[in-house]
Amino acid sequence: GAVVSQHPSWVICKSGTSVKIECRSLDFQATTMFWYRQFPKQSLMLMATSNEGSKATYEQGVEKDKFLINHASLTLSTLTVTSAHPEDSSFYICSAASTEQILGYTFGSGTRLTVV
Amino acid sequence: KQEVTQIPAALSVPEGENLVLNCSFTDSAIYNLQWFRQDPGKGLTSLLLIQSSQREQTSGRLNASLDKSSGRSTLYIAASQPGDSATYLCAVRGSTLGRLYFGRGTQLTVWP
């Protein structure tokens, strides 16, 4: 079945530093990747949608200069949280979709980011 | 804009009970609807997916129904077990490669 690998699973960083989260589709080509953020006991909030080779489309209220998304290949998308602050601490999850798998999207296992 | 609501927000039941989780959505023009399970601190596991042309899907003790015209879906869990304890999320998709709209989930606890 389709597998999406997300790394790291958890990361702790200092305020002001940048953190990169990777999302890889292991056995299919991901035409589209979605990045979500989840606060404790809340649902998933879509941050942005990225298509391979194109600039990401950000949801309203999401700072594109703070949350940099790169989807340079059909198997890899990255989310970089720049100049992280404690309020950026959250659970980030990616989801990958392809034209071969239009029935259901595959989700990564998530990354717990803690900014201290 | 699509809005997805899940009721109840939380549910605590003894082992063996049959359960019904509800999901409603405001825009009936959906491509499909998907039920997920999320364990604490983990990602999402897909349970059942119903295409817009389908009425229900079954997998083991799980059955999901879809009434697109009324904007409702129900996840039925038979003979619940402590291992079923998790948060259950409902999500709808509006188009082929469109985004998912999630509900806030139902937090289920099944105690022995």
What are the secondary-structure elements of chain B, in order, as H or E? EEEEEEEEEEE
What structural class results from the helix and strand content of chain A? mainly beta
Catalogue the unreliable spans of chain A. Answer: none
Structural class of chain B: mainly beta
The overall average pLDDT of chain A, rounded, is 91
User: C-alpha Rg of chain A, in Å?
Assistant: 13 Å
Which outline of chain A best applies? Answer: globular
**Distance separating the two termini of chain B:** 41 Å
What is the overall shape of chain B?
globular
Draw up the topology in text.
The complex is a heterodimer of chains A (116) and B (112).
Chain A: E1 4-7, E2 10-13, E3 19-25, E4 32-38, E5 44-51, E6 57-58, E7 67-73, E8 76-81, E9 90-97, E10 106-107, E11 111-115
Parallel strand pairs in A: 2-11
Antiparallel strand pairs in A: 1-3, 3-8, 4-5, 4-9, 5-6, 7-8, 9-10, 9-11
Chain B: E1 4-7, E2 10-14, E3 19-25, E4 32-38, E5 44-51, E6 56-59, E7 62-67, E8 72-77, E9 86-93, E10 100-102, E11 106-111
Parallel strand pairs in B: 2-11
Antiparallel strand pairs in B: 1-3, 3-8, 4-5, 4-9, 6-7, 7-8, 9-10, 9-11
